[in-house]
Amino acid sequence: MDSMTTAQPPLQFIPPAYNPWAYRLVKWIGPLWLRQRIYPITADGLDTLVDCYQQFEAGHHRFVLAYRHPTNMDPYCLMYTLTQLVPQAAKARGIRLKKAPNSHFLYDRGVHLWLGSLGRWMLPSLGGISIQRGKLDRPALRASRELFLNGEWPLAIAPEGAINGHNRILNPLEPGVAQLSYWCLEDLHKAGRDHEDVVILPIGIRYTYHDDLLPPLQDLLSQLEKDCGLPSLPLPNKLEPDKLEPDKLGPESMREQHLYVRMLRVGDALLATLETFYRAFYPDVDADELATHLEDPRYTQGIQLPELAETVKTMRIRLARLLDVALQVAERRLQLKCQRKRGQGRTWSERRHAVEQAGWDRIFRADIPDLETLSPIERGLADRLAQEADLHLWHMRLAETFTGIIGQTVDLRPPQERLVETTLHLWEVVSRIKGEDPLGRRTPHLGRKSAHLTIGDPISVSSRWPEYQSNRRQAMSDLLADVQRGLEKTLRSEQQAEVEGVAKAMV
Fold first, then answer.
1. For the chain, which has fewer Cβ within 10 Å, the N-terminal or C-terminal residue?
2. What is the arithmetic mean of pLDDT over 242-249?
3. Between these two residues, 3 and 272, which has the higher pLDDT value?
4. Gap between the Cα atoms of 393 and 16, Å rounded
5. Distance separating the N- and C-terminal Cα atoms of the chain
6. pLDDT average, residue stretch 293-299
7. To which CATH superfamily is domain 20-210+448-506 assigned?
8. Quick check: 262 and 225 in contact, CB under 8 A?
9. Domain-by-domain residue ranges, the chain?
């Protein structure tokens, strides 16, 4: 990853420059590379995707693939689906597509900071469009608009805007997918192509572990307990199922419950430490809202499930307050106006984007034509500003991780995958506090995974043209809400498929 503690040239827009050799290379190597990380990759609703490509090639519509973004592996799984599974599904139906299925796609320009020179070449060569999410990026928007209208393939967008780290939880959507869809509709009318429809296709992605997660989870929690200065919390010698759950948990479920208590204990300790830190050293923000908190003795004395629900609810409130304070610290030091109240100002996501952009403006200096022409004193001051900005961004990154934890639902008996997701979020928080960059470290490997994609129902945008002409703001809001519902429906479909799979296994 490039240094973020010295002044850098501005992050320039990198235009898409599709290279068929890059596509062939990824199509050949990609499945072998993915097999070492995620296997198998399957999908439901492939016929819908085949139909969309067929209609696209016939000039009947333009469409966007609106996919969920729970992990950094999602784009690879989507590309595998397009390059491997869609051609197979088309062949099975006797359909011959004119071109190999592919997509243009949007990606955060900051990806180059940790992908390096290979990513700088590969992503544009595959048809990617780099965009800065914290500002009005006119070159990227123009390129996206042009490719949506005239590109060889559809456009792929993650409407959540960033990785959210959750299989079962959907983040609030950002407006980009709705805005680009209506712009495409406008452009089609201007070009006399109003016979073409604009369609949004929701795509859900879900990952499933295939190994016993309890041993690696125990090891990871032991390390996190050590990092937090907590003594280990061994499994009680005598477990009393009657006191844990009315339907009497089995030994496996009791071990999961014990891990859940350990995870809550680590989260509680992290919260208490950070609350003390911000309250003591950042008096210029509203840190007095962070109450002094002592460890709940019930973690070591034994805590019952009914008590866990209240504990989790309280922790979520504390997390939200801590997130707000961390963002305030970054906003104050980057001279941004704090807009705290949700519904009356910027959302958390918008605040994070604004902080990130303000920090990057101090690191990637668009206001300096050539850094090499600076005097040593000027260069030293520019580097000092970059170092300070990088430190201020640390608070925003911490808040970004908190957002993923806050998204968790209260569940007295969470599935193993949710234990994994939250524990990995805690690992990321601890890594950042210890001064380690989670992007520069390999995420702890907890077991083999497979991926399953669910292709949702197409959402027509063209039928909303009269509404868009009369009230653009309301039309945007309504379309975004329908995309949200479409993605939520893919989540329900995936959960139903999981239930049916378990039922079949039991027969």
1. C
2. 44
3. 272
4. 29
5. 51
6. 55
7. Glycerol-3-phosphate (1)-acyltransferase (3.40.1130.10)
8. yes
9. 20-210+448-506, 214-440
